[in-house]
């Protein structure tokens, strides 16, 4: 059976748009706002599904939920019947509330908004590689380019080494060299290969002084301690204290447009992971106050890779991986299915910034102490990179052992 392959990865184009009347524009704005909510709901459901994998318990976790949702929404352009319904439901869209056109238009607005930012180095998009003898429906290709900013390439997958080199060069260019060998082995039966990428590089609003970085212990668990390079700064930071979950939350900003949220629980990180949600993050952001803190944050680089086939199937999007798949919107002649879904991610955090290719009863420490409080991230913590404008979660994960680069 002919197969299409979906690959997703993170490292973390000008489009023709028809004029719209004011009413249409207002509806698009409302749909885009709802898309942000659905994307964040999906992000936390995906995070918890990844955490249910046995191998995730003791490892660093880092991924881009936005890259995954963009890829799934993009392939839904060619899906029909139950396959389309599963994709839309899995992404959190109720078809009685959102039409397909409204969802895709909202994704376009989001991608355009992200790609137009000038205060950080950010690029989001997709690319489609098609077997040269395979002819997808022109309407599918046109919509993929219009809504998902897709680059298109005709290749010969039977020339495995040559095509892999071409694809890896594209990926390396888009991720500024952070992910350069994504394609390890190509299946010559491949008909289509969809890539979804996001690259983010931001500089801290207040950079750390490298001369103050020191080696300190990081407590992986009660029995394991590893040495890490710990960055230090005393400055005015946005922080809050979540007493319900015994968690200290710190926001490190990139030029006020994006921020990295670090959540440090006093107790087991797993308890916080069970409780965390978009609503909880919203409350953290809402109740943050600026005050002077001494902070210690580990300097680290991590790379992760996830096979998402079983994870997405477990989230209800299963038919696309089986012979029940309906991608009649891509081709009427070939029966297509998705044979695999993979994401690779990387995160570098240093003194200058980060490059990334996840309630009632909240109480705050009174701001009357003379002593400067200290936040030391020397035990497992959660991490999120958030767009302050749209509140979209671009990347999320947890740092269990910053001394380990690969997971």
From TrEMBL:
Q: Name one GO cellular component term.
A: extracellular space
Highest taxon above the source species: Eukaryota
Compartmental location = Secreted
User: By its UniProt entry, which SUPFAM superfamilies does this protein fall under?
Assistant: Serpins (SSF56574)
Provide this UniProt record's keywords sorted from A to Z: Glycoprotein, Secreted, Signal
Task: Give every Serpin domain span.
Answer: 44-402
Q: Give this protein's Gene Ontology molecular function annotations.
A: serine-type endopeptidase inhibitor activity
Q: Which InterPro entries match?
A: Serpin_CS (IPR023795), Serpin_dom (IPR023796), Serpin_fam (IPR000215), Serpin_sf (IPR036186), Serpin_sf_1 (IPR042178), Serpin_sf_2 (IPR042185)
PROSITE patterns linked to this entry: SERPIN (PS00284)
Record's signal peptide: 1-23
What's a Pfam family in this record? Serpin
The UniProt entry's sequence similarity note says: Belongs to the serpin family.
- Any idea what job this protein has? Major thyroid hormone transport protein in serum.
Protein's recorded name: Thyroxine-binding globulin
Q: Which organism is it from?
A: Astyanax mexicanus (Blind cave fish)
């Amino acid at each position: 059976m002919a197969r299409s392959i979906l690959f997703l990865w993170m490292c973390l184009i000008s489009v023709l748009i028809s004029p719209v009347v004011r009413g249409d524009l207002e509806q698009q704005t409302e749909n885009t706002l709802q898309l942000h909510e659905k994307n964040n709901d999906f992000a936390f459901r995906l995070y918890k599904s990844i955490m249910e994998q046995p191998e995730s318990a003791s490892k660093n976790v880092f991924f881009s939920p936005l890259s995954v949702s963009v890829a799934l929404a993009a392939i839904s352009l060619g899906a029909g019947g139950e396959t389309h319904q599963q994709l839309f439901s899995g992404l959190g869209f109720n078809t009685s509330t959102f039409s397909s056109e409204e969802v895709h238009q909202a994704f376009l607005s989001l991608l355009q908004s992200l790609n137009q930012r000038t205060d950080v180095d950010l690029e989001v998009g997709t690319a489609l590689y098609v077997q040269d003898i395979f002819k997808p429906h022109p309407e599918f290709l046109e919509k993929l380019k219009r809504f998902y900013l897709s680059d298109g390439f005709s290749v010969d997958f039977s020339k495995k080494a040559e095509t892999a080199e071409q694809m890896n060069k594209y990926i390396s260019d888009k991720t500024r060299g952070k992910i350069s060998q994504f394609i390890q082995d190509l299946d010559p039966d491949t008909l289509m290969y969809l890539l979804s990428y996001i690259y983010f590089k931001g500089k801290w609003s207040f950079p750390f002084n490298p001369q103050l970085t020191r080696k300190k212990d990081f407590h992986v668990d009660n029995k394991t301690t590893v040495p890490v390079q710990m960055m230090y700064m005393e400055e005015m930071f946005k922080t809050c204290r979540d007493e319900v979950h015994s968690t200290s939350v710190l926001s490190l900003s990139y030029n006020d447009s994006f921020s990295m949220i670090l959540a440090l629980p006093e107790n087991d990180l797993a308890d916080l992971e069970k409780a965390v949600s978009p609503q909880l993050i919203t409350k953290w952001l809402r109740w943050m106050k600026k005050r002077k803190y001494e902070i210690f944050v580990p300097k680290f680089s991590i790379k992760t890779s996830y096979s998402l086939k079983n994870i997405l199937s477990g989230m209800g999007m299963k038919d696309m991986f089986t012979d029940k798949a309906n991608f009649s919107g891509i081709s009427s002649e070939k029966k297509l299915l998705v044979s695999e879904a993979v994401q690779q991610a990387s995160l570098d955090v240093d003194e200058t910034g980060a490059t990334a290719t996840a309630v009632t009863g909240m109480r705050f420490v009174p701001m009357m102490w003379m002593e400067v409080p200290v936040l030391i991230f020397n035990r497992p913590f959660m991490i999120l990179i958030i767009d302050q404008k749209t509140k979209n979660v671009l990347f999320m994960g947890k740092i269990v052992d910053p001394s380990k680069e690969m997971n």
